[in-house]
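Duplicate of #3305? Posting structure anyway:
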């Protein structure tokens, strides 16, 4: 639940950033929120993978 909330918060921040600089002609300024969102998604994917791995390890230990 917390992970989803973090991702939603980061996504909202990225979207607000895009909205604020939407009128800006500088493409680099538009890329910054997209990069932040991409980084947040990558971090979330890593966290999800670690959670799954730990879950498998826990299940393996509990079977013994």
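Output from current build:
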């Amino acid at each position: 639940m917390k992970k989803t909330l973090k991702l939603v918060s980061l996504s909202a921040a990225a979207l607000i950033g895009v909205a604020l600089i939407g009128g800006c002609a500088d493409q680099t300024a538009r890329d910054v929120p997209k990069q932040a969102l991409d980084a947040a998604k990558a971090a979330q994917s890593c966290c999800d993978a670690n959670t799954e791995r730990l879950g498998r390890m826990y299940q393996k230990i509990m079977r013994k």
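Confirmed duplicate; merging threads. The longest helix spans residues 27-63. The chain is about 90% helix and 0% strand.
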